């Protein structure tokens, strides 16, 4: 894994650019997938789904996510009035015709809602009292071959949202993303075993 400059996301012709031009690029990361080819995006997605969500990537990461949900419940950050279709409109309303109907089924318990899925690109969104955000996953060719790229795009909810993002930045950089790296890159290395156990086909 490596942290990439924001320009690395802007430089590629992702469809998310036309859908969320008013969102800020918060984070851009790459995840290694040794031996991957141009058509292995679905294989990688299947492997990381089978490995579990980011909150399960380590005990410390799990504790941070659990704390976040408890604080959200205590302060009302995750109330329905602050979610998609309430405080903000879903980006599904902005999708061009060719992307409508391409959304994936959301995993049980996931706070994210799928926007679209293409052969080399997928996006999910979330909204709460702090932010409206998009997790964009793309399959790109890097210096070491094909790899997964993740970009987090945000529209903070006013000054409070910006303070919140600044406050959690050290935890993201020092705990959450390193744990996700071990989980996601490990999922790729063991993709065949993980895929069969979870009922995924390698050619998904």
Which structural traits does this protein have?
alpha+beta; 6-stranded antiparallel beta sheet; 204 residues; 24% strand; 6 helices; disordered C terminus; globular; 6 strands; single chain
Describe the strand arrangement of the main beta sheet, using strand numbers: 1-2-6-5-4-3
What's the order of the H and E elements?
EHHEHHEEEEHH
- How much helicity do the residues have? 25-40%
Question: How many beta-strand runs?
Answer: 6
**Alpha carbon gyration radius:** 17 Å
Q: What does the average pLDDT come to?
A: 87
What percent strand? Answer: 15-25%
Biggest sheet character: 6 strands, antiparallel
Question: What oligomeric state do the depicted chains represent?
Answer: single chain
Which residue ranges are poorly predicted, with pLDDT under 50 across at least 5 consecutive positions? 194-204
How does the overall form come out from the CA principal axes? Answer: globular
What is the terminal-to-terminal distance?
A: 24 Å
Count, helices: 6
Derived structural class: alpha+beta
């Amino acid at each position: 894994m490596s942290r990439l400059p924001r320009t690395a996301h802007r430089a590629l012709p992702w469809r998310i650019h036309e859908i969320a031009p008013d969102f800020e690029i918060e984070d851009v990361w790459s995840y290694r997938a040794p031996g991957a080819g141009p058509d292995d995006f679905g294989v990688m997605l299947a492997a990381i789904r089978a490995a579990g969500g980011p909150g399960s990537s380590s005990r410390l990461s799990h504790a941070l996510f659990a704390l976040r949900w408890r604080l959200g419940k205590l302060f009302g950050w995750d109330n329905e009035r602050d979610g998609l279709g309430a405080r903000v409109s879903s980006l599904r309303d902005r999708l061009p015709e060719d992307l409508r109907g391409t959304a994936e089924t959301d995993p049980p318990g996931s706070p994210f809602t799928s926007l679209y899925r293409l052969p080399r690109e997928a996006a999910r969104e979330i909204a709460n009292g702090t932010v409206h955000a998009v997790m964009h996953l793309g399959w790109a060719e890097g210096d070491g071959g094909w790899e997964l790229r993740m970009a987090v795009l945000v529209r903070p909810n006013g000054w409070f949202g910006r303070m919140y993002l600044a406050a959690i930045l050290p935890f993201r950089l020092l705990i959450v993303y390193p744990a996700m790296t071990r989980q996601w890159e490990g999922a790729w290395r063991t993709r065949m075993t993980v895929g069969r156990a979870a009922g995924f086909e390698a050619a998904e």
